[in-house]
Design brief:
The complex is a heterodimer of chains A (about 325) and B (about 475).
Chain A (H helix, E strand, L loop, with lengths): L19 E6 L2 E7 L4 H22 L7 H6 L6 E3 L2 H16 L15 E4 L4 E4 L12 H15 L5 E5 L3 E4 L9 E7 L2 E11 L2 E7 L18 E9 L18 H14 L2 H9 L5 E7 L6 E7 L10
Chain B lengths: L4 E3 L15 H14 L1 H12 L1 H11 L8 E6 L3 H10 L5 E7 L3 H14 L5 E3 L2 H7 L5 E4 L3 H13 L3 E4 L7 H14 L3 E3 L7 H13 L6 E9 L16 H6 L5 H5 L11 H17 L3 E9 L13 E10 L2 E10 L7 E7 L2 E5 L9 E4 L7 H5 L32 E2 L10 H11 L9 H20 L3 E2 L8
Parallel strand pairs in B: 2-3, 2-5, 3-4, 5-6, 6-7, 8-11
Antiparallel strand pairs in B: 8-12, 9-10, 9-16, 10-11, 12-13, 13-14, 14-15
Helix pairs in contact in B: 1-2, 7-8, 8-15, 12-15
Classes of the chains: A alpha+beta (about 325), B alpha/beta (about 475).
């Protein structure tokens, strides 16, 4: 998929050339594949989605001196700061993922996320202790992809796929004549080695993994994770209906944000916990590649998943 | 390889191991999420969780005791109007009462709904005259409409007795800009123009401390600045929110494309030199303490379709300034086909250099001292500049030797030690509201912004004239 254009799908039929639009943001590349009769219109819609990502980066980046997150990271005990509704929404999802995974996914990496109070009605974040350091790196890309998809649907672009840096992918309706968007999961040590092929429709797919020299820290222990090479999580979008523009507090389909967060959690959770998570969550599916970067031996574990899926190996 | 994928048969949890995750939480958690929509779930959960805190914190976000509420209307709810709204939501005592935008089905609706979420009881209007008629309680109007509407909107709001914050460029014509200055003087109401760097604490620090008090650059002889942007498609609109043709024409647009891309059209905007250059050329005059005396410029439409891009996509301009310290030349370029190096202003004096940008993450405000210039120790002590990264005790030993011979020493590196934590436009809006409350003076009043408009609009003239154009001191006055 990285090369764009021709995609060799899981069913072995080449895809026609699908227009692709690319944009650099959040230290990665965002892309939109969109099928539309008017390519100029599709380009304008994609650009509007990229403008949205740029805005989110200004709010969510911990590297910008005047972002919402930087202001939160400078709060003293008892201080509060007003943030944009999207920052608050992203933090609310992050907090929910923290609770759900018992801290295995933690945007504060052990610095005390629960001591940040979120006040939705005023869009205010208040610190009850000082020193909480938020880094939305494990969820912000997925959140951006969710919002980009909403925007594309608002523009009437329903047959589309959006991704942020290939680690947060959201497949909307498939291209004409296809059942889904063809995707692969591959070994991070050897990307040519495909572990699984999927066909995705109205589904978010996220990945987290280790390349040589990388490490992921378990926020609960502060120690680097061992024995896991990569994790993938897939989750269907809740409901693809587009709320009327500007409707008050429409329900949001935050499937990509959730998968983004859960892939990180799956790098540190025990197998049994991942299984319990999938068993209790309709549609949630996870893959974990066990092994060590220097080790040839590895095994791919698959959890959950109720939809039909084609899997090929090696 | 077929064995690589196995349906995991996880071992049953052993009782002697502490559970690392509450299973019940997991089982309950996500199973409810897809049905509800995760956002709603997290939202309600959070709301319930912290309900007790809401009032206490909300009180902090509203006007503290003693801060007088200012009733505000937003006129123009497009991209820039939304940026200003986000910044104003952070300013205590600002009460939104009305939002006016002719794109009622999209921008107006979006901003009205967003403000209602923050408990601002706002009414939406398509026609600003109707808004001025009905909303008598409004104290101030924030104008972020296309440039060719600025003059009429500002004049009418001032004459209706409102204070006005109007986005730059104050007008697409000097005639329009003069009417704004005249209306401000006639009504005695406040008129701030949105050259927001004038209120940015980083720029104010450079102006007050580095350039004027410490004179760290010595005499500035040359200036270089740019705003480069990558190619982008023209702005579009979702099919289902296209404005009917009759309404577009009523408000001066020939079609939806022109409505969305007015900045590129003659008679509507001024092209990139005005949209982007105006911010930075404004800083040239401010920091140099003079208006330009001459300008030469080259520009053209090198890349985009001239039917939809009437203004120049590429502009390179050179100004002459007669500053209080002597003559100076200032170069400015803007191009819209490659974003290399982004945007910044670089002031070069005979004793030092200041490289600054509104974007602190890209340009931290680097300061370089000429090795022969007087030492900056005093300014480092006063925190006007950051200490060099490596504090070297350069030859300051008591040994009586002229030098301690050792590993080579890197030249000092300094930065502007001031950071803006708020959104870029917030301090300038804050300055406006403080002035409305009688507690400050405007950082960019109409007559100052007029001088910038004179300097900037002349670039497009110079490109067309293909010759050096002169300014007279009288030109900058209304």
């Amino acid at each position: 998929m990285a090369g764009g254009g021709e995609i060799d799908g899981g069913v072995g039929v080449g895809l026609p050339e699908i227009p692709r639009f690319s944009h650099e943001a959040m230290a990665t590349i965002y892309e939109v594949y969109a099928v539309h009769a008017d390519q100029q219109y599709a380009a304008q819609a994609a650009q509007a989605a990229f403008d949205l990502v740029d805005r989110l980066e200004r709010e969510l980046s911990r590297f910008l001196p005047n972002s919402d997150i930087t202001r939160i990271n400078h709060l003293d005990a008892g201080e509060s700061t007003r943030v944009t509704p999207s920052t608050l929404e992203c933090l609310a999802i992050a907090r929910h993922m923290f609770d759900l995974t018992d801290g295995a996914f933690d945007v504060s990496i052990g610095t005390g996320l629960p001591s940040l109070e979120l006040v939705p009605d005023e869009s205010v974040v208040r610190a009850t202790t000082r020193g909480v350091q938020v880094d939305l790196g494990g969820i912000g890309k997925g959140y951006a992809v969710d919002l980009m998809a909403e925007l594309l649907e608002e523009w009437g672009l329903h047959a589309a796929l959006v991704h942020g840096g290939f680690s947060s992918v959201l497949a909307l309706e498939p291209p004409p004549g296809r059942d889904g968007w063809p995707l692969t999961l591959s070994d991070p040590r050897e990307p040519a080695r495909v572990l699984a092929r999927l066909s995705a429709r109205q589904t978010a797919l996220g990945a987290s993994g280790l390349r040589k020299g990388d490490h992921i820290v378990d926020p609960r222990t502060g120690r680097p994770v061992r024995g896991r090479l990569a994790a993938w999580v897939a989750l269907p979008r809740p409901d693809a209906t587009v709320p009327e523009h500007g409707a008050e507090s429409p329900p949001r389909a935050a499937a990509a944000a959730v998968t983004d967060a859960l892939t990180t959690a799956c790098m540190v959770l025990e197998d049994a916990d991942v299984e319990a998570l999938c068993d209790g969550s309709p549609g949630l599916e996870a893959w974990i590649l066990d092994g060590a970067p220097s080790d040839r031996d590895s095994r791919l574990l698959h959890f959950g998943g109720e939809r039909e899926q084609e899997t090929r190996h090696g | 390889m077929a064995d690589d994928t196995t349906k995991a048969n996880a071992p049953p949890p052993r009782d002697d191991e502490p559970k690392r995750i509450g299973r019940r939480e997991v089982l309950k958690g996500l199973s409810t999420v897809p049905a509800l929509g995760l956002f709603g779930y997290a939202w309600n959960r959070q709301r319930h969780y912290q309900q007790a805190r809401v009032e206490e914190v909300a009180a902090g976000a509203q006007a503290p005791a003693g801060v007088q509420d200012v009733n505000v209307a937003l006129l123009g709810a497009g991209a820039q109007g939304q940026v200003l709204t986000d910044a104003m939501l952070r300013i205590p005592g600002v009460r939104f009462r009305a939002v006016c935008d002719v794109w009622t089905e999209y921008n107006q609706k979006r901003v009205v709904n967003s403000l209602k979420r923050f408990k601002h009881e706002v009414n939406g209007y398509e026609d600003y005259r109707e808004m001025l008629d009905k909303e008598k309680a409004i104290d101030a109007v924030i104008i972020a409409t296309p440039d060719f509407w600025h003059s009429q909107h500002t004049v009418d709001c001032l004459e209706a007795g409102k204070h006005v914050y109007c986005e730059k460029e104050m007008s697409n014509t000097l005639e329009g800009a003069r009417k704004m200055v005249a209306a401000q003087r006639k009504t005695g109401k406040l008129l701030q123009i949105g050259h927001q760097r004038r209120s940015n604490p980083r720029y104010l620090h450079c102006y007050d401390k580095i350039l004027h008090e410490a004179k760290m650059l010595g005499r500035i002889v040359t200036v270089y600045g740019q705003w480069n942007r990558a190619v982008t498609p023209d702005l579009g609109a979702p099919d289902r929110y296209v404005i009917p043709e009759a309404r577009l024409q009523q408000y001066g647009f020939k079609d939806m494309h022109q409505f969305r891309n007015w900045r590129w059209y003659k008679g509507k905007g001024g092209g990139p030199i005005v949209d982007l250059g105006s911010h930075q050329i404004d800083i040239y005059s401010w920091f140099l303490g003079a208006n330009p005396s001459r300008v030469m410029a080259s520009g053209g439409n090198l890349y985009y379709d001239p039917k939809t891009h009437e203004w120049y996509d590429t502009v390179m301009a050179v100004y002459d300034f007669d500053t209080p310290l002597g003559p100076a030349k200032a170069y400015y370029q803007t191009q819209t086909t490659n974003g290399s190096q982004g945007y910044f202003e670089n002031f070069m004096g005979d004793q030092g250099t200041l490289l600054i940008s509104e974007s602190e993450v890209n340009y931290a405000g680097q300061l370089y001292r000429d090795p022969n210039a007087p030492a900056w120790d005093e300014w480092i002590q006063k925190r006007y500049v950051s200490a060099p990264r490596e504090q070297e005790s350069k030859g300051k030993s008591d040994s009586g030797a002229i030098a301690d011979v050792r590993e080579s020493v890197a030249p000092d590196q300094h930065t502007v030690p001031v950071t803006l934590r708020d959104p870029y436009h917030q301090p300038h809006l804050q300055n406006f509201f403080d002035t409305v409350r009688g507690k400050a003076t405007l950082n960019c009043p109409a007559d100052v912004a007029y001088e910038t408009a004179v300097a900037v609009l002349k670039v497009n003239e110079a490109i067309e004239a293909k010759s050096v154009l002169s300014f007279t001191p009288e030109e900058f006055k209304v």
